[in-house]
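Components:
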Amino acid sequence: MAEGEIVALEFSFSFLGGVDQSSGLLQGSGSVGIAGKVFAFTEGKGSTVGSYTMLEMKRRGTLPVAILNTIAEPIVTTGAVICRIPLVDSIDVSVLRNGDRAIVDGTRGAVEIEGVELKDVVTCILTNGDRFLIMKRSEKVGTFKGKWAGVSGFVEVGEEPIQTAVKEMSEEVNVTDARLLKKAAAILVRSGDIVWKLHPFLFAIDDVRVEIDWEHTDHRWILAENLREFDTVPGLDKVIRALLSA
Amino acid sequence: MFLTRDEETVLDGERGSGPQQAMELLVALGTVYDADRLIPITSAHLSGVSYKTIGKGGLSFLNDMASDARVQVRTTLNPAGMDLERWKDMGIQKEFADRQLEIIDCYDRLGVETTCTCTPYLAGNLPHIGESIAWAESSALSYVNSIVGARTNREGGPGALAASIVGKTPAYGLHLDSNRKATVVIEADIGSGILNYTLLGQVVGKKVANAIPYFRRIRPSQDEIKTLAAAMAASGAVAMFHIENMTPEAHAMDTAGLETIDIGIRDIASARDSLSTGSDPDLIALGCPHLSDVEIIELAAVLKGKRKKSDTEVWFCTSRAVRRRCAKEVAELERFGKVLCDTCMIVSPIEENHLCTATNSAKACTYLPTLCSQKVVCASTVELMGMIT
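Structure:
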């Protein structure tokens, strides 16, 4: 078990050459230090000597207290083992923010971020031919007012995401006969103190006439390349890519 | 993970504390990577040798291990922080030299062959196809996985040491057929020459991270492959690759449906520009990875009859084994600079004497700014020779 402040890099990292052993400062960063921190990066790269670099940093008191990776590469794993610090993998580094306080349980392979909540939501993309439906959220909703989104809703306790999807489709656009084409793996998106766990669903309908409810004020059928013209809820582009790519 | 009774006794400390620590590390790695058992290895190669990189922490660790552990298989060693014979010529300080020699002594006591080269396959440690080994040194392990068809994971220095002490390694990763398959296709149109291949490696490593590239359209020489492997392992984490019609496992690869990345002259020119951060080098350094016999002979042929035009320091880094085999050509190169053994421009403390280094190795260009505080000139072999004659 270890806890500390997060330093997160959304790219790969080599301990040898990547950090100054005596100060714990990241090379090329000016003043970002990893001594005593929970150090997150996507995966190890570069030198196999990196495991020894970690050992030397431990001796000098500049080693991080824990490592979080998307993929645990053997050089980093070896260093974590000989230095006896926890390493947890399968972490989506993009949801971490520098300065978050994290509690890392290496035995359970779990990470808790203080003050940050995980919320499950579904995002349903309705397609008709090569176009899909986006809707502008009204001022009456709780979150992301005025942003463009798919059909979405919180996954309630006891509900499976697919059930939420069907319910929201009926409520938000009055569609009950859509064909489910695809369900993509969950996507994590950080926004402020919330990590949204988006469950993406792809549906097809034959009739473009939809009835939107109080939650939205406008709707459009667009092509994928037009998405960037709209101010969307966070992660909508990732959802589209996950659902519409071959 | 299943351990035999013999392996359990090592884990319990009955063979000594060094072997126990080694077994603990192997079991920890095996558990993380879901290995079901340990498998025997036929050789090991160790990184973590230079006092500059492993420091007092590494020396202390090795000293502990050497007190009661011995390697069980043929084990070779990576370059040290200095030429073990000519360190005074290099301007190395006595304090550094003493610590460095202590490190070499630890490895010696462990029973390691102190070959001090990143090209062990040119210094007598050449595995056979299909053999399971445990090699650290990112360039060499990638080379033997791909060109020879031997099997090793991308071991950290201590991991390879642990495996050599136990004589085994956990059965995961690249020891398994299913993990050796190509995962991305690279269509490369880049011409030939060491610089082009090293830059190709730089670009590929950065783009694919730890994927297994399958190269089409290239027909590199041994030395071009050597520098390609090194660059990909430094800018990325590539431990294995296939070259169509060249490498032993390439023919069995099914590349249908894999993403294809096109790389051309413009991409490598751009990589060269990014790596070059300086001008006016005060050190010209070749041999990352260590120069082969062929390279030493070719360089000597280029320099024959020429005169050195400036007094810029020049290093030709190679293994003692290659130096011995090319004594005549080495004498030619010594007219222009130092043919150094046991070390290289990255792991020796060149920052104490130099500000800007010119080299034809993308791997070196990656580490020179951060490990050696150098400005870098990334140039071809011909351009480097043009700087000294």
